[in-house]
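## Example record

The block below lists the input lines for one assembly entry, exactly as stored, with component labels intact.
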Amino acid sequence: MDEVASAIADPVRRDILLMLRGTTLTAGEIAHRFTISRPAISRHLRVLRECGLVRDELAGRRRMYRLDAAALTELAEWIALIRAPADWDHRLDALETEVRRTRRERSTRRTAPHGERTEETA
Amino acid sequence: MDEVASAIADPVRRDILLMLRGTTLTAGEIAHRFTISRPAISRHLRVLRECGLVRDELAGRRRMYRLDAAALTELAEWIALIRAPADWDHRLDALETEVRRTRRERSTRRTAPHGERTEETA
DNA sequence: AAAATCCGTAACCTATGGGTTACGCTTCCA
DNA sequence: TGGAAGCGTAACCCATAGGTTACGGATTTT
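Predicted structure tokens for the full assembly:
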């Protein structure tokens, strides 16, 4: 967990992770979006690799990178543990509201996966 | 956000935050639970103070420390953003179930669920 | 086959982090 | 009122992080 936390403590690495959401990019494509040197990016990528936040795959002379968000789970759970005691009830209310709103929004934008359950009362 | 992330990247500081859940402790009480020197703990506490994860208050010749979990919000939201795309619908289902279950459990265990429901921004 | 491309590694420098011991300032107490 | 208690700070040491330039090893292209 130490490694993951210190990995995302760097703004460059956070930006890399953000730009990998949904896509896969080559090392060169990533490096090209920063002003710092390419070797610096290469080492950032190594840090992300070694803590599991990123997976790489050789494709010819290029190397494709993709996000692996599962590496964040442990840290997310620790943060949840710390945040839990504070203002529990209020946050649960807000959370349920948000969950309902987000799912409703998604099921109208896409095709509804399973039955409609938007009218249940708590 | 950099500061918060790098603060919780250290296991000693994570332990300090954990032991501050729910209580307030003096610097001495905290230091006494570790094997490393007291000045080292003092500096860890300073790091936590300066990034807002901890609040301190002088009480005579002692200094009381308490957790301030709000400092984790920004980082938690960033992590949520990264984790969001994966398995979105399924997690929303599970989340709503858990929210409902947890709140029901809490309102039966305690006296009343907040007689007044204040304005919800949703 | 030779050259260009893609990308990691090595060597180097400086800044920062975390530990230690020594010290100093308040505050309590006998 | 003098000494002990509680804590932060300073000075110091060593390891690590992050940047740079120079280099090397595959793969593609011409």
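Residues 26-28, 31, 38-39, 42-43, 45-46, 60-63 of chain A lie near DNA strand C (CB under 10 Å from a C1'). Residues 2-71 of chain A form a domain with the Arc Repressor Mutant, subunit A fold (CATH 1.10.10.10).
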